[in-house]
Amino acid sequence: MYSTLVVSDDEKKLESLLSMDLFNKESEIQIESVVKDGESALKVLRKKEIDLVITDIELAGINGIELLRKIKEEKLCDFVALACENASFSYARQGIIYGACDYLIKPYSVEEINDLVLRIKNIQIKKENIEENFVENSLSYIYGRDNKYKGYIEEYIEKNYTFFRDFNKANKNIIKIFRNLADRLYADNPWMELYFSVENFYLNGTIWEKDIEAFKEHYKISFYKLFDEYQELMPPHNDNIKEVINYILSSPQEDLRQKTVARKLNFNVTFLSTIFAAQTGERFVDYVTKIKMKRAGLLLLNTNLTITYIGIELGYRDLGYFTKLFKKEYDCTPSAYRMGYYDYQI
């Protein structure tokens, strides 16, 4: 459903427009507000989320072209259609320059409004298809470890900002896409929620709005961080140790000593040690330690649990030993890791 603002002081034409069957309760397009001048329109747009503006070009005060320019300048609405009684190349040209989505000739017709709605839907469908392709290509990059998709991801982030031409909308859109990607990953790999939080991905602070390149670079790095994290947590392996890896990833708080895991999953201890190292390129004990430290990292960033409690929760009663292992993984102490993150956010 598209919430619509109509801007017109032409009583007869306005009455004709509002009486159309298009604007019933079941319609895709709903009239949210009707105002008679551009200043009133701007007040509405600054207070409400409006999907579509249909405005007369000839208005008292600021005209429709100037209203369009201000709407785009302040990024108040993505879709603005200009309306006039006579076709004018000059008006149409100005509308194109300032980003009008359509040029309507009054009196309005049902076909014309339907075409307008269809055009908007097609634009949104195209955007949704691009988003879906992005998610699919991202999954191919993650699961297939194929760098050919890397360029596509960078290109999408560039285009996302260009499409919205607005920091806040671009930011919200990338967060939405990232959540979709994370949801797909979490559905296939429920254990991921133990190591990676979408909330840590969110970009905060108005300073970024003034530095678009930093904005784009932040998200490129964040996407690749997710991809790298997945590949580090899930090393290359065959089906014969898939159960072992999934158990470790799903249970970082458990006793994950090699003999304990082997007994629980019915493996010979020596066989497990040999085949694990051969397939993953890591010693079993090193992999388990890494997983526990990754879990500790997320708990430090997303909870108020004490460092001592986190260490004990993961099986380390000796705080000094836990800190030593954490520092080996992250090149800093647990407290520095936690404080460094919040300093960065501020």
UniProtKB/TrEMBL annotation:
* Modification 4-aspartylphosphate, positions: D56
Domain of life of the source: Bacteria
Task: Report the residue ranges that make up the Response regulatory domain in this protein.
Answer: 3-121
Molecular-function annotations in GO = DNA-binding transcription factor activity; sequence-specific DNA binding
Q: Which GO terms describe its biological process?
A: phosphorelay signal transduction system
**Residues in HTH araC/xylS-type domain copies:** 242-340
Keywords for the protein's UniProt record, in alphabetical order: DNA-binding, Phosphoprotein, Transcription, Transcription regulation
Keyword Transcription regulation part of the UniProt annotation: yes
Q: What Pfam families does the annotation carry?
A: HTH_18, Response_reg
Q: Which InterPro entries match?
A: CheY-like_superfamily (IPR011006), Homeodomain-like_sf (IPR009057), HTH_AraC (IPR018060), Sig_transdc_resp-reg_receiver (IPR001789), Tscrpt_reg_AraC-type_HTH (IPR020449)
> What the protein does?
May play the central regulatory role in sporulation. It may be an element of the effector pathway responsible for the activation of sporulation genes in response to nutritional stress. Spo0A may act in concert with spo0H (a sigma factor) to control the expression of some genes that are critical to the sporulation process.
Q: Which PANTHER family does the protein's record reference?
A: ARAC-FAMILY TRANSCRIPTIONAL REGULATOR, HTH-TYPE TRANSCRIPTIONAL REGULATOR EXSA
Instruction: Identify this protein by name.
Output: Stage 0 sporulation protein A homolog
